[in-house]
Amino acid sequence: MTAHDPIARYRLAQSALADLSPDARIQARRALLRANREQVETLAAQTLLGAVNAPDRAGERLLWFWFNHFNVFWQKGLVGAALSDYLEHALRPHLYGRFGDMLRAVLTHPAMLVYLDNVGNVVGKGNENLARELLELHTLGVDGGYAQTDVRETARVLTGLGLRPLKPGRRNPEEHPLARQRGEFLFNPYQHDAGAKQVLGRKIEAPGFAEVDQLIELLVAHPATARHVTGKLARFLYGDAATGAQCDRAAKVFQASAGDLAATLEALRAAADAARPARTFKDPYRYVLSAVDLLRDGQPITDARPLTRWLATLGQPMFACRTPDGYSLAGDDWLSPGQLAQRFELAATMARVVPRLTEPPREAQALWRADGTQTVYAALTPAARQVIAAVPAVPDRLALLLSAPEFMYW
Predict the structure, then answer these.
(1) How far apart are CA 305 and CA 42, in angstroms?
(2) Are residues 293 and 404 part of one domain?
(3) Which residue among 218, 267, 300, 331 has the highest number of C-beta atoms inside a 10 angstrom radius?
(4) Model confidence over 73-93: pLDDT tens digits?
(5) Structural domain includes residue 155
(6) Is residue 109 in a domain?
(7) What is the mean pLDDT of residues 226-230?
(8) pLDDT by residue (tens digit) across 231-251?
């Protein structure tokens, strides 16, 4: 443990609560939550800055996809303190790597282990939360052909994946020859169910953590995982325009390449229908980022804090989905009268604020004449263009542009 590790600091502060009086404990808990909230707000703004400004904006937005796929909720225990490390070490290094490597990094990260209660999954006292979501959400999918016995056996494989002990006990698990440790993560062989297991008809009986590697290899190679993962990627990248043939081709590449994500992404792009006849209602993340892209006109923005507030207003705050399935990628799930009303109100705010967030700030008249703005304007119906052209104030014209049905879809 190092003093600069926010996960370790949080665990020490949380452990120290037991020595406080009841009133002091309440105040200390509030202080911990407040510190976590501030860290998460800062991280959300930094993450959105990358999604808008970074040279590899596509990669930054893929990072959001994978976080949503492997969702954790920041208010659960140490998760808020662990979020930055989760993004930078469990997800980002594997965006164009192998799915199995990302899966292993997720399964051994304190954020996921705490969020889905695997810290309590020990031999003789099992917890199936992580095992169930691993099969249903992260790999095979709800229709992936697994049974409750597979969930139970998977949970047995995952026993002992938790956090290193803060206080020394009778036996030091870190000194066990089969122990695995990185930072606050520890595979504790003393808490692992060492008996043989059978998952999806395959026997798993390697020593210690090698069982987890066997399980990951089994899940990555399963056709249902290829279909589920590539289907979600296709929906994120192409929405309702993604075709069954496109997904089938990418799934075959995923399976043949043992989960090579760069090859899978290339297969999805190569099989994309250039015409893309189907349009999808934008979720809040895509709507806000596309509005900001239009209104900044190629200039970097200097402050993404307003973006975090706008996403929260539209019901998709960063890192705050409570359930492990993450935010829906289906546009229709976001299409409602209430969502539209909020966007109409927010469009006026974005039209005024975003041009002031760039360096240098953008003038409204120049922004209206910009190629990107005029391209969107030209795609509107003649009646819509006539209404917008009659509005004298340029910020109001921009707000109407962001409120147009054509802009709400992609």
Answers:
(1) 8
(2) yes
(3) 267
(4) 999 999 999 999 999 999 999
(5) yes
(6) no
(7) 98
(8) 999 999 999 999 899 999 999
